[in-house]
Amino acid sequence: MPGRALSKEEKKRRLREITEKWTERAVNAYKYEKTRPLEPGKTRKGLRAISEEFKQQCLEEDKVLITIDKTTISRRLNGVPSQADANFDKNSWLSRKEEKALVKFALACADQGFPWDVSRLEEYANDVCLAKYGDDFPGLGQNWGDRFVGRHQGELKPCWSHALDHQRARAANPVTKKEYFTLLKKAIEGEEGEEAIPEELIYGVHETGIQCGVGQKRRVLGRAEAKIQQQQRSGDRENITVIVTICADGSDLPPAVIFKGKTYRTSWRQNNPLKASLGHSEKGWTDGEIGVEWMKEFDRQTKAKANGRRRLLLVDGHNSHYTAGFLRHAQDNNILVLCYPSHSTHIYQGLDVVIFSPLKTAWTEAWDEYERRTGQKVNKQCFLEVYANAHMKALSKQNIISAFRVTGVVPLNPDVITETMLAPSRTSSTSSSLPVPLPSPTQALSDTIHALIARQARSEDEGMDSDSGTDNERDVLPHPQMEVPARRAIDSLQGTSASFLVSRSPLTSQHELPRYQPYTISPFQQRYQGLLDLTPATENERRLQEALREVEQRDRRRKENMVTMQAHSVLQDVYVKEARSQLQAAETRKNKDKGLAMDDGLPKLLTDTIYLDAADAREERKKERDQAKRVMADKRDSHKEALRVWKLAEKARVARNEVIRQQHRDAVKEWEEESKLAKAEKRRARWTKPKMGPLEKAVPKPVLYKRKAKAMEGVEESDEDSDEDGIVIDEDLDE
């Protein structure tokens, strides 16, 4: 299928590259022609003959007709640069080496998961130019970034970004890779005397979620002026989990499908071409109970094929894969369960890497075809029939074998997990990984300083003298010849503002290196070109000219190195700022303890005794928590009933007290009338002012938890307070 048509600029760039390539070949051919031994009667080829010869070769090989002028070859032989190089050196703000450093920085950031766009490229190029030219720098031209990418299309290419979670970026690192493939090799080869596990008994399992009313976007036909074509969907986002199991010999097992529902419904019975197992859970996800039942079904389906031999099952770290029931059944039936490193299925899990993408595409096609053919929406009642078509299309033997091959499982090959795939973990690595590589001596000194600081820290922890030697291989310096200058550097740094680099205190975002102050570097000029163009009259004049030419070349190289070093410093400063901002964000982020049993992120052989015991302990803790929850639920129910009874009693008490208050008010009213009458008759009242009798005290309100503070005594609750329904939490209560 042909690609997109090339732009005019791209066609010109490719033509320049091809012309330059064949011109260089013609120059080298002419040099060789001048020095090769000549046979008797033969003549040497001239510039015209060689230019015509390579022009024809270019037409035959590259299918492009170019012009190679003999004058161009002659100028190249005399050291005259090409017109493109001359224009670049004259008009470009950045030198070749600076552009190369910028490209390396961009690629390193992209490998680590922080790619740039064109605006960010221009921003960093501006930083380099401002450091080089000072405040007089007017700024890059319009569309400079696009032209830069065009000049370096062999290394840079615009592409769409894809989100990568921070946890996944950190998890895929050289340490977990080494540990994973070591465990994998050990599991496959077995202990001494055990038979190696053949490829037909190596399985991988993973879950994927499918929504009946949501599919992937597709290329469809629409109006010529339309950029997006709407496509109607049912919009049903209820999740259906499909557990897919594949084998390294290219076969697969019937899937397990989990519907969302509290109970099994007879309407789910349907045409089942794949003979899939059917289950249900409250949210449509797999859980520990379903995991145990799936393990039993997996054992039943593969037992005859294994015929007593060991089986290997590769799983991720989902909690349904390390319950006690799951692991005990696996151990009892000679099934080894190997868990991938945490958050790294995008690299090690063949189903994620190869299978699930075409499966989702095939599902969208099967779903559209079903709705178009029947006019009905896809739902649980027909899901198994529709999904079967997508499953059989995506899980071909070729795809399944490829899933194990590209993840290095069968054949066992750790090298398929390349350094580029692990590059995002460099941002959290303890090793030096600046985006622009340091020169070899500088890198050696940096590694030695790091090793010396680590050695000193271990010596202090173990109560040993930091200068005493040990036989531990971790104390061997990477570059012993650098020990003396490294110790001097450490001593010098301890008295500066950068002392935190050689301190044992943790590095924080508040630590900041002294800022590098760039200075303006003037363009190189050949100041003595007039003297060099003179024809020497004596031998001494010739030697002086050669010395002057050598000095100018040395100065040019030094200035070029200075420019490159300053560009590296500016780019490293940008990188350090980015790292400090990420460190600051990490400091403010709260750590969430999820209580997982495998929080170190490393791969594990889950059928080992240590993990089986841990699973049993985890199950016991879960039972204790469940029992505590049931007890608390019973307490809540009892409290609710006691609170209901208390409210009724309290309401009756308030009513009785109100009767007493009303009787007292009536008696006081009669006494007031008697007092008025006695005063009019000038006598004493026949009785004294009545007093209200005692009221019923409130019964303490039942509470779910004990109160920390003492309740106020002797104070009668008001009617409004008696209707409150608060709960006081006791911090000493054991849940």
UniProtKB/TrEMBL annotation:
Pfam families in the record: DDE_1 (PF03184)
Region described as Disordered: 457-479, 710-735
Compositionally biased intervals (Acidic residues): 714-735
InterPro entries with a match to the protein in the record: CenT-Element_Derived (IPR050863), DDE_SF_endonuclease_dom (IPR004875)
GO molecular function, one term: DNA binding
GO cellular component terms, A-Z: nucleus
DDE-1 domain span: 239-404
Superkingdom as given in the UniProt entry: Eukaryota
Protein name: DDE-1 domain-containing protein
